[in-house]
Structure to design on (565 residues):
């Protein structure tokens, strides 16, 4: 299906700073305790919580990475030519356990041996690796894939798949939203000629394409395949009437009349707010009739990574406090697309966005973690700086985020997993969830959920794994959460001390009984295809935006007197 036509040396559209933070997670969870690789040859070794460490200063001069040829992408991480990958191996060796030693010999020992097939530190020594080989086979293939992908992204080769993204869609050619492959093909992505390229591109396009897939009338979610519910049809019909031509009409027969912009609210936004704007502009090419105003809102939104000079530009507005009463900026990318970042908890500025209109307003939250334990630490961090954050400070924090929904989930809780290694260490920077912890739907998300449900506009979510999805769904419905490990698998998504809920949570006032499903929970064809591997247990892998679902505030229709109870 894919073409392998390559264009010549057109200017690269992605620069390393622009793609520093290709992925996002929603602020409300943020168990980021990790160093996150980025889609960039620039090597990042920053931790979110580490941003308060003195040592956490940006590297100023990066060594030019050696060029790796395409047949030389596999290296054991601990011997990688790239320091970031070596450091990753070091962290795995210091926080994970040898599974064979632990499960068969009841020894808690760190892995010191690199599997020769995948290059990840997996076992205590060669003997234990041999012993656990059968079990490891299950994970070895994907670890090898990630190993090569990580070396490829840093190899210094021209990343043609990130360049020359198609813009205008020829009028006569419809886009297929069935999968990444068919979308790339029908959209004429010219430089995607391998599965690896598809994985790289899916990782940065998953945010705009997830939105496009949900909103487009030819998208993968329909009432025919059961994903759009009966109630959801009303919401989607309203949105489609603004996004698309009426049935049977053509551009020639429809009078040109300005339609209101579609407003997309991305809550708990982090790195998606620093995606290069041209990636968001893909939405304009997919919906050629529509103007979009995209709002990134949350305590962790990225404020622009630009210098003072660029800030002076006319099309670029930055305000410390003005306008929204919170640090913010607006970029008018073109006449049809504006991007606004507002660094504030959503509930603080909800009223400023009103009135709301279910025809033109749509909410998204990428991996909100509704069913994930609330983390007071996060609140401390995000609220501590409130009202005092200067631009430069904001910028500095943003640089250090480099975060990603699934990546952070995969890497969360890495260090300090084993407290006994240093019993005297104070672990106050560890996002430790006591057993009685509330889930985030009851805490950070409670008010925004209430506010958004009251607008009757649709609110869509993603999740990074089947368990993550089930956990979020159960939190809002007040039903039993999934058990912590997949059926038949000894592998747990999070360490035991992450107190995931084990029973239904209490109903949440204004939420639990106040919504209807619009989009049933299930797989998202536009999730990232890249595995994100957990450092605390490399057997754990998740994918950004793996699943998606959506809800809307209940509509109480006017009923006849005799129908009233
Ligand atoms: Zn292996």
């Amino acid at each position: 299906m894919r073409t392998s036509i390559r264009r010549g040396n057109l200017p690269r559209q992605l620069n390393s700073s622009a793609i520093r933070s290709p992925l996002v997670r929603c602020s409300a969870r943020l168990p980021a305790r990790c160093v996150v690789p980025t889609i960039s040859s620039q090597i990042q070794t920053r931790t979110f919580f580490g941003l308060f460490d003195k040592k956490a200063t940006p590297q100023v001069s990066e060594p030019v990475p050696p060029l790796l040829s395409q047949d030389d992408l596999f290296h054991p991480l601990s011997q990688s030519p790239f320091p970031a990958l070596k450091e990753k191996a070091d962290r795995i060796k210091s926080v994970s356990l040898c599974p064979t030693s632990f499960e068969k010999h009841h020894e808690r020992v760190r892995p010191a041996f690199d599997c020769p097939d995948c290059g990840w530190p997996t076992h205590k020594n060669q003997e234990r690796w041999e012993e656990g080989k059968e079990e490891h086979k299950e994970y070895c293939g994907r670890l090898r894939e990630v190993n090569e992908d990580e070396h490829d992204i840093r190899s210094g080769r021209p990343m043609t798949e990130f360049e020359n993204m198609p813009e205008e869609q020829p009028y006569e050619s419809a886009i297929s939203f069935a999968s990444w492959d068919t979308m790339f093909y029908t959209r004429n992505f010219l430089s995607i000629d391998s599965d690896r390229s598809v994985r790289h591109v899916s990782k940065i396009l998953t945010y705009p394409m997830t939105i496009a897939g949900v909103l487009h009338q030819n998208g993968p979610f329909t009432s025919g395949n059961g994903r759009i519910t009966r109630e959801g049809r009303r919401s989607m019909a309203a949105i489609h009437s603004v996004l698309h031509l009426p049935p049977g009409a053509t551009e020639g027969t429809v009078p040109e009349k300005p339609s209101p912009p579609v407003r997309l609210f991305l809550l708990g936004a982090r790195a998606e707010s620093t995606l290069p704007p041209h990636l968001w502009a893909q939405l304009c090419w997919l919906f050629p009739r529509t103007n979009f105003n995209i709002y990134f809102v949350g305590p962790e939104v990225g404020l622009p990574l630009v210098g003072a000079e660029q800030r002076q530009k006319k099309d670029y507005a930055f305000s410390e406090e003005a306008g929204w009463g919170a640090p913010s900026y607006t970029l008018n990318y073109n006449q049809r697309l504006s991007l606004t970042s507002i660094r504030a908890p959503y509930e603080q500025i909800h009223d400023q966005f009103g009135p709301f209109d279910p025809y033109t307003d749509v909410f998204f939250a990428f991996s909100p973690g509704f069913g994930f334990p609330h983390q007071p630490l996060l609140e401390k961090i995000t609220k501590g700086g409130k009202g005092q954050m200067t631009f430069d400070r904001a910028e500095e924090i943003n640089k250090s985020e480099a975060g990603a929904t699934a990546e952070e989930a995969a890497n969360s809780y890495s260090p300090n997993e084993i407290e006994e290694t240093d019993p005297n260490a104070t672990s106050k920077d560890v996002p430790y969830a006591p057993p009685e912890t509330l889930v985030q739907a009851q805490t950070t998300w409670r008010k925004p959920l209430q506010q958004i449900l009251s607008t009757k506009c649709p609110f869509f979510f993603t999740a990074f794994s089947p368990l993550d999805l089930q956990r979020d769904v159960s939190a809002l419905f007040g039903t039993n959460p999934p058990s912590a490990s997949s059926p038949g698998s000894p592998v747990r998504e999070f360490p035991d001390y992450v107190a995931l809920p084990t029973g239904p949570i209490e109903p949440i006032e204004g939420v639990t009984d106040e919504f209807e499903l619009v989009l049933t929970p299930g797989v998202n064809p536009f999730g990232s295809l890249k595995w994100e591997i957990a450092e605390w247990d490399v057997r754990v892998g998740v994918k950004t935006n793996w699943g998606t679902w959506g809800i809307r505030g209940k509509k109480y229709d006017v009923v006849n007197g005799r129908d009233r109870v």
Residues 115, 117-118, 122, 136, 140, 143 surround zinc ion (CB under 6 Å). The radius of gyration is 23 Å.
